[in-house]
Design brief:
It is built from three helices and 13 strands. It is globular and about 50 Å long.
Length: 214
């Protein structure tokens, strides 16, 4: 009995040492509008099913808190937390419903310290066929004449839930203030366009070349 108690105390001490926080990764937080993932090629909510994926991204918030007006970090510092998910919901019948929405549920962020502290969050979406992650899709070459549909939300600061509290852990925090995502294609530059750009650069260089001494 004493040994079990010591193990339990040790586990809680480890959680407090490393820190943790939880957020609710979905588009149905109470009191929020429904942020949607929009497909720019159709102008409507992105189709539910395996066509598109979304993932939650996190960056640490400064500790101690610098206060109001703190700017978000560079987007390149964000890393994916939790699993990527497809858009919508899969019914037992095999039908996908709710285009443009996502619902992964609770996501645990081990890097948050102290437990339940603030964090920066962003949601990224992409066309699944181009990669298992947003980064893979962004780096993928063109398929069927175009590159992947990609999009990101705004960056928000969230006071995460503390799952390490003994007795009644805090509920995961909703992503209050998260924006919708517009999926767009970044076109590959054509050979003609690249040639025209190169010609412009050469002309600009020649126009700035100093005149020869008389």
């Amino acid at each position: 009995m004493k040994k079990s108690l010591l193990i339990t105390v040790g586990l809680f001490a480890g959680l407090q040492l490393h820190g943790q926080g939880t957020v609710l990764f979905n588009t149905f937080a109470v009191g929020l509008p429904q942020p949607a993932v929009i497909d720019s090629t159709t102008g409507t909510n992105a189709v539910a099913g395996t066509t598109f994926s979304v993932a939650l991204y996190f960056a640490p918030y400064p500790n101690p808190d610098p206060g109001p007006g703190t700017l978000p970090p560079d987007p390149s510092t964000f890393a994916q937390v939790g699993y990527s998910v497809h858009l919508g919901f899969l019914l037992p019948s095999g039908q996908w419903i709710c285009p443009g929405c996502y619902n992964e549920g609770t996501v645990l962020i081990p890097q948050i310290h102290p437990p339940g502290y603030f964090g920066w969050f962003q949601v990224k979406a992409w066309e699944t066929v181009y990669g298992f992650t947003y980064e893979q899709a962004a780096a993928a070459g063109p398929m069927n004449g175009r590159t992947a549909l990609l999009g990101v939300s705004n960056i928000i600061k969230v006071d995460t839930g503390d799952p390490t509290l003994v007795g009644v852990p805090e509920l995961p925090a909703p992503l209050t203030g998260i924006s919708g995502i517009l999926l767009t294609v970044v076109p590959e530059p054509s050979v003609v366009a690249l040639g025209a750009l190169s010609a412009c650069v050469v002309l600009l260089f020649l126009s700035k070349k100093p005149a020869a001494a008389q």
